[in-house]
Amino acid sequence: MNEKVLANLWDLINKLALVAIPVVLGWFLNSGSQRIADSLQNRQFIQSMIDQLSDLRSRTRQDIALILLNEELGREQPRMVARIAEVVYDDNLERVRKSKTGDPVSEAQGSTAYEILAELDPPRAKQISQDSQQRVLASLLDQVNDGQ
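Now predict its structure.
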């Protein structure tokens, strides 16, 4: 009788294993393919944001792209997002400086790029602010000296 019970138990375990193994394997494969799909979607999102950030015709588009990029990736990859914000900040500062309207440092520091940079990397934002002020002052001195 014990042998019959053991045989039935063994048969039940085999049947459960035959069902469980494909289910578990399917779950793992589905999970892996979902991670790949998420990664591809993430890359497409980043590429789209880079396209928007590269559009120099619209500062609003750049700001929106930076905000979305920060919301989507700022917690996971703060250094990358901060670096992108720094590049956009530098570009904005240079455009304002070349347009010769207003105070370029104040205007750039009020930008979305600077705000995101200050949020993600405050020491770097402070350093960039100081460097920007020095560059603008040097540029103004050059203009004054060229005028004499």
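The chain has a mean pLDDT of 81.
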